[in-house]
Design brief:
Elements: E1 3-7, E2 10-13, E3 18-25, E4 32-39, E5 46-51, E6 57-59, E7 67-72, E8 77-82, E9 91-99, E10 107-108, E11 112-117
Parallel strand pairs: 2-11
Antiparallel strand pairs: 1-3, 3-8, 4-5, 4-9, 5-6, 7-8, 9-10, 9-11
């Protein structure tokens, strides 16, 4: 059972930066793909970025070039560096994990609010 705890959300002006962190605990973390999702008010949850234990990354078109996902397997942490933030990035951000042979994310953090003021 993987447990995820996010930190680093907050209020920032448009054009600014924030860094989100996710700390994971549980067995076989190296067998898991980790990701950041977000959900804005009135919208469905969307995948922002993902990273495998080997470092392969994937980004939503809306954040590519502005956000960077990274992972430290020795510390069981995942980070999301968000630059050039826009008002439309405002959402609750969730850290998630799935075993690498599954397509479903089974493990979720509690979420952290990111608010970008224009």
């Amino acid at each position: 059972q993987v447990q995820l705890v996010e930190s680093g959300g907050g209020l920032v002006q448009a054009g600014g930066s924030l860094r989100l962190s996710c700390s994971a605990s549980g067995p076989s973390f190296s067998n898991h793909v980790t990701a950041w999702f977000r959900q804005a008010p009135g919208k469905s949850r969307e995948l922002v970025a993902s990273v495998t234990s080997g470092g392969s990354t994937n980004y939503a078109d809306s954040v590519r070039g502005r956000f960077t996902i990274s992972r430290d397997n020795s510390k069981n942490t995942v980070a999301l560096q968000m630059n050039s933030l826009k008002a439309e990035d405002t959402a609750v951000y969730y850290c998630a994990a799935r075993v690498r042979w599954s397509v479903r994310y089974d493990y979720w953090g509690q979420g952290t609010q990111v608010t970008v003021s224009s």
